[in-house]
C-alpha cells in the first residue's frame, strides 16, 4: 500500500501521512509518495522535506548531577573508596528508573 506525505509547500511542515488523499488537494499543500509507512526510527525534516534518521537520545546520569553539586562534592570527598562504593550503590538503588534523565530535562525528580 502506498503512503503519502502531505506538507505545507511554503514551510515544509508535515501535515498528514496516510494512504488516502484529499481530492482536490488544497493548493498550499504538496504531496509526495513515500512508498511505505515511515519507520519509527525516522523523523520528518522540514528543510529537506524527507524522512531522516532520528538522532539518538542523550541521557544524563543523575549521579553526575549530584557529584557536580558543591555540597554533595564536599561530603563525597570525605568518604574513603569503600564508603563511596556503598554510597554509589545506595544512590543507584534509590534512583531506580529515574537515574538517567533526558538531556535538557531539569534535574529535580518530579
Low-confidence stretches: none
| Total number of beta strands | 7
Report helical residue fraction: 25-40%
Order of helices and strands: EEEEEEHHHE
Largest sheet: 3 strands, antiparallel
Radius of gyration: 24 Å
The termini sit apart by 44 Å
Query: Quick check: average pLDDT?
Result: 93
Strand proportion: 25-35%
Shape: rod-shaped
Itemize the secondary structure elements and their pairings.
Elements: E1 3-8, E2 14-18, E3 29-35, E4 42-45, E5 50-53, E6 59-61, H1 62-67, H2 70-76, H3 81-95, E7 100-102
List keywords for this structure.
single chain; about 110 residues; alpha+beta; 2 domains; three-stranded antiparallel sheet; two-stranded antiparallel sheet; 7 strands; about 25% helix
Describe it.
- This protein has two domains: 3-53, no CATH class; 59-102, no CATH class.
- By secondary structure, the protein is an alpha+beta fold.
- The strands form three sheets. A three-stranded antiparallel β-sheet has the order 2-1-3, with no helix packed on it. A two-stranded antiparallel ribbon has the order 4-5. It has a two-stranded antiparallel sheet with strand order 6-7.
- It is built from three helices and seven strands, in the order E-E-E-E-E-E-H-H-H-E.
- It has helices spanning 62-67, 70-76, 81-95, and strands at residues 3-8, 14-18, 29-35, 42-45, 50-53, 59-61, 100-102.
- The radius of gyration is 24 Å and the shape is rod-shaped.
